[in-house]
Amino acid sequence: MLKPRATPTRDLCNLDGLWGFATDDQAGPDPWRSRLGLGLEVAVPASYNDLFADPAIRDHVGWVWYQRTVQVPRGWDGQRIVLRVDAATHAGRVYVDDRLVAEHVGGYTPFEADVTGLVTPGTAFRLTIGVNNELTNVTIPPGTITVGHDGRRRQRYHHDFFNYAGLARSVWLYSTPVRHVTDITVVTDTADGVGFVDYAVDHEGTADVVVRLRDAEGDVVASGTGATGRLSVPDARLWQPGAAYLYEFEAELVEQGEVVDTYPLAVGIRTVEVRGTQFLINGEPFYFTGFGKHEDSPVRGKGHDDAYLVHDFQLLEWIGANSFRTSHYPYAEEVLEFADRHGIVVIDETAAVGLNLSVTGGLLGAKPKPTFSPETFNDETQAAHAQHIRELVARDKNHPSVVMWCIANEPASHEEGARKYFEPLVHLTHTLDPTRPVTSTAFLFASYDNDLIADLFDVVSLNRYYGWYIDNGDLASAEHKLEAELRGWAETHGKPIIMGEYGADTMPGLHSLWDVPWTEEYQVAYLEMNHRVFDRIEAFVGEHVWNFADFGTGPGIHRVDGNKKGIFTRDRRPKAAAHALRARWTRLGNHKP
User: Fold this and answer.
1) Cα separation, 168 vs 16, whole angstroms
2) Which of 27, 88, 151, 435 is spaced 20 to 30 A from 42 at the CA atom?
3) Which of 252, 295, 333, 410 is the catalytic position?
4) Using an 8 Å Cβ cutoff, are 52 and 120 in contact?
């Protein structure tokens, strides 16, 4: 699905701002049929949970309703008119006046509706969007809903971040010609200094396809005709980690000598490959340094914010990080475009976090239910997971910054049924995109001698907390156990290994002369211990600290005002560990120590 853009043949209206708002119990039946009358207003884009003082809204489970009046530009006569929602967490319904025009399940990928003929250029219509935050055993991510003694519905889920909901990304109204480009796929390669761009342009209508590739100065360096083909670029400038170079691919539909549609796409020429225990970008070994992140900030929750986008990437540059993982869901497209332009490498992840019921048993001391069964995570869950993978690849396949797909976070890969569940999903991902490696992060209970799915993946990704959840406060024992496990993974699988998560909760401003957990000194010592081990493992190709910044979570006796494993506070102030990481990562650059 192409991101809406304003071009010589397309127009674009952003519908962000203040909308009318109501929860389903406030709005009454069929709220799309009339004006929401509560007087509540909500910001778009933003999660709605932290915007209001009413705890009933913050903790609401079920549908909420957004509404506004939209004026259709009068110059759009004869054009195709489309409504697009960049994300509705976790399900959405869109109504134009009284008519349902779109439904979508999945909280982090876009959906749209062709409303040509339902709206009239030069007039206004009532736009109502319903958003549902419910999670069940057949949603991605999963959860359960219970009813308390007070009759209030409560959402339970298996992931450690707050279930922010709403319209966290932009809403658009845009126009295209009736005969228009519907999708573009590009795949790049290099040989002997020549860059290659293989392309496929999907379109409506019978027009001819003309393509051009322009360099950063706007000069045409290659061109072609036809809906598919290969462009060759002599002396191509490559997209490199830390040194991004982007060409512009331009697709035109031409009919009887007239351009009827045009669409531009940023293209970075680069290659990605796993060879033995190395991860290669442009044929050179690459060592990941950076973080697992979250879309999370005070008040806005998961709402996309360009100011935080700029500042977060400035902090990545300052600390010397070259990469991050979109834990635990696809981030806004603006984030990936920014990474494309600034040379930051991305591991792109689905929203499949929480497919692990053994976590609950471990925390509560109760015997857990089997993770994979007809009553828990089943064929319907797997089908929803597959759809998430399809939509992720379809949206992000052309970003040069994206070098690997991560299809799940900490699933119960050691449990019976894991291989039956995951093997088709790994095959699907490789089929949809044969050019990128695929991984999944392994939970602590899955070791190199009991994991059932690691051989399916190109890269072994581990989340490990020796020195925090295991051997808390005893870094000497933690170092011994961590090294023994990493060597076991390396000997068993012979694949690149990346640490997808490692970290220690740290209260900013808490200090001690000794290695006391929760202090800033302990966080530094914990990271240094991990790094000593990483540097001794030949197959090790990267380190992603958990987490970039402190973030909001649900209630829990082990969480005080959220998860405190951030290297930066939630408002992006550095802890002592930020300076220690900066010293290490600026020295390493993109290379293994």
Assistant:
1) 10
2) 151
3) 410
4) no
Burial (0-12, 13-18, 19+ Cβ within 10 Å), 180: buried
Q: Which residues pair with 462 in a beta bridge?
A: 442, 499
Say which CATH architecture domain 181-270 belongs to. Answer: Sandwich (2.60)
Six-digit token string for 422:
């995951």
Helices (H), 411-519: 418-432, 475-493
Q: How far, in Å, are 17, 96, 167, 221 from residue 99 at the CA level?
A: 23, 5, 20, 47
- Please classify residue 78 by burial: count the beta carbons closer than 10 Å to its beta carbon, then call 0-12 exposed, 13-18 middle and 19+ buried: exposed
Residue 591 CA, chain-centre distance (Å), reads 25
- 175: three-class secondary structure by DSSP: strand
Element (H, E) at 525: helix 520-536
Residue with tokens 């489970």: 61
pLDDT by residue (tens digit) across 174-231?
999 999 999 999 999 999 999 999 999 999 988 999 999 999 999 999 999 999 999 9
11-176 and 181-270 share one CATH topology? no
Check whether 23 has a pLDDT greater than 70: yes
Asked whether the beta carbons of 88 and 167 are under 8 A apart, the reply is yes
Q: What is the dihedral of CA 503, 505, 509, 514, to 10 degrees?
A: -80
Q: How far is CA 60 from CA 49, 112, 133, 486, 517, in A?
A: 8, 26, 9, 43, 35
Provide the token pair at 319: 């600390």
Smallest Cα–Cα separation from 567: which of 357, 322, 321?
Answer: 321
Q: What ranges do the domains of the chain cover?
A: 11-176, 181-270, 294-588
What is the CA 112 to chain-centroid distance, rounded? Answer: 19
- What CATH number does the domain located at 11-176 have? 2.60.120.260
Q: Tell me the C-alpha distance between 392 and 561, whole Å.
A: 31
> Per-residue pLDDT tens for 52-87?
999 999 999 999 999 999 999 999 999 999 999 999
**Residue that the structure tokens 């409303």 belong to:** 115
Of the candidates 333, 501, 520, 543, the residue annotated as catalytic is 501
Has 410 been annotated as catalytic? yes
Q: Is the pLDDT of residue 556 over 90?
A: no
Q: Which amino acid is at 178?
A: V
C-alpha torsion 527→532→537→541, nearest 10: 40
Q: Which residues contact 77 (CB under 8 A, 6 or more apart)?
A: 121
Instruction: Say whether domain 294-588 belongs to CATH 3.20.20.80.
Output: yes
DSSP 36: -
Angle, CA 325 vertex, CA 402 and CA 522 arms, to 5°: 150
